[in-house]
Amino acid sequence: MRVFSLLTALLLTAPPAGAQSGAAPLPQVQAPAGGSGTVPGEVQPLAPGARPAEALPQLTLTPAIAELERLEYRGNGFIEVAHGVALLPAGDQGLARRRALALEIASRALAARPELSEVDVSVYDRATYGGFGGPLPLFTASVPRARLAEFRAYAQGQGSYDRVYEGGAPATTPPTVVARVREDALTFFGSASERLRQSLTQSVSQSRGGERDGLLFRGPTNRRVAALTFDDAPHPLYEPLLLDLLRRAGVRATLFVIGRNAVAYPYFVRDMVEQGHEVGNHTYHHVRLPGLSPAQVQAELAQANAAISAVTGQPVRYFRPPGGDYSPLTLQVARQEGLTTTFWTDDPGDFNNPGDAVIESRLVSHLRTGGIVLLHDNAPEAIDVLRQFLRVARERGVTLTTVGEMVAPR
């Protein structure tokens, strides 16, 4: 028993086998801070203590559109995209009105700024608007400049258009309140013996690579390949910028999608699949799962699976728990839903906004075979440094790809 206790202590404190010289230590399963067994849920990811991201430039239309709350734009070095948020009052929310408003915003934005390649519009109910993570939009549209005439015809009742969401999805409520909890650790909510088993599974996975007991902590270490993953997809401003960069580099990635976002922006999820990317499950509402009831956990995973598969026509294989927080119940439900719970080896902290130079340095110095890189599709600094990181990976002979491709037998 004394020897077993000593081995246990070593496993919980020693650096994992397989860590490469010069690379950051691999993340270790840890107990929740303060021993709490419950973490409240989270509507949309926030990073407390983070530096605020730089304010996005705003496009001003003259004369102003009364319903337009804001019109932001951003580029990726190749293209620029704008996203407009509009709020409609009760009694003025018919589909024809939503279409007409989206058309006015898109057409006037494209005319006002010739550099724009695309304008995306999200129309909300003014009374219930709660930001990007609140109640679903009433209507969304993606309008590339080359398809403006087609969208105009659709908005005027002439034909169909495939890059819209016309509303109608049932309203849902996150099972818990918003929590501002950092997303920089793998936190296991369970007993000491359960945590020991998790640490043992993680140690073997990080040493040998591959899936163990329905969990994936690291890919194979005998091939020069790593997985590139993005959480919290899709975002209507950043998704076109991210997909454009990946397409230009010829790189495929795994995008962990929030179910409600797949409902509101189905055309971006279709873009992911059409461009060869893999779509994973990141729960329906982006909630922290430990502390929820079995029924709530099952609903979060099953509803996200259903929302994603309804768009892609494909089953979902991989799941990432928001914040890296999980428990025995999380793993049990994930297995029941046919999902492999997937973590990461390299997290540069892009959502903390430490600066482009810091993010790039962390990405480059932590690059390793079998690694799983964690970025966020709506983190501005991830967009800024991605092009350079992909170039460095190519130069070092490390192929970045999807999780499924990385672990596929050879």
Automatic annotation (TrEMBL):
Gene3D superfamilies: Glycoside hydrolase/deacetylase
Signal peptide: 1-19
UniProt entry keywords in alphabetical sequence: Hydrolase, Metal-binding, Signal
GO function term, MF aspect, one: metal ion binding
Positions of region (Disordered): 18-37
Low complexity bias spans: 18-28
Domain NodB homology, first and last residues per copy: 224-401
A single BP term in Gene Ontology: carbohydrate metabolic process
Keyword Signal: yes
GO CC aspect terms: membrane
PANTHER family: CHITIN DEACETYLASE 1-RELATED, GLYCOSYL TRANSFERASE-RELATED
Protein name per its UniProtKB record: Oligosaccharide deacetylase, putative
Organism: Deinococcus gobiensis (strain DSM 21396 / JCM 16679 / CGMCC 1.7299 / I-0)
Gene: cda
